[in-house]
């Protein structure tokens, strides 16, 4: 695997937490910890883009009525209003 070396500025409190995680064996190195975090964020960003594309294809997020119908079909219990006995 090809790697690139970059310089980033990270708040000191975050650096301390990352170094503590490495010391506790949660990652083999600070670089590995940061690479894993960046990979995770990149995956989340790609999922968000995919969901945005799906919403465009379907005409936007479901309406309140569509959500209620889906809940009914799936057997999701209705939420009670506060104060209802």
Question: What this model shows, in words?
Answer:
The protein has 85 residues and is mainly alpha-helical. The protein has one domain. It is 61% helix and 0% strand. The protein has 3 helices and no strands. The longest helix has 29 residues.
Provide a brief overview of the structure.
With 85 residues, the protein is mainly alpha-helical. It has one domain. Helix content is 61%, strand content 0%.
Shape: elongated
SSE ordering: HHH
| Tally of helical runs | 3
- Helical content class: 55-70%
Number of strands: 0
Query: Cα distance, first to last residue?
Result: 62 Å
Q: Could you report the average pLDDT, rounded to the nearest whole number?
A: 92
How many whole angstroms does the radius of gyration measure?
A: 22 Å
Enumerate the spans where pLDDT stays under 50 for 5 or more consecutive residues: none
Feature tags:
85 residues; mainly alpha; 0% strand; elongated
What are the SSEs and their pairings?
Blueprint: H1 12-23, H2 30-58, H3 64-74
């Amino acid at each position: 695997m090809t790697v690139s070396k970059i310089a980033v500025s990270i708040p000191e409190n975050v650096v301390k937490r990352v170094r503590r995680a490495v010391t506790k064996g949660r990652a083999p190195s600070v670089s590995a910890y940061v690479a894993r975090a960046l990979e995770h964020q990149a995956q989340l960003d790609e999922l968000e883009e995919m969901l945005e594309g799906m919403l465009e294809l379907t005409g936007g997020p479901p309406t309140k009525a569509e959500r209620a119908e889906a809940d009914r079909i799936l057997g999701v219990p209705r939420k009670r209003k506060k104060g209802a006995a």
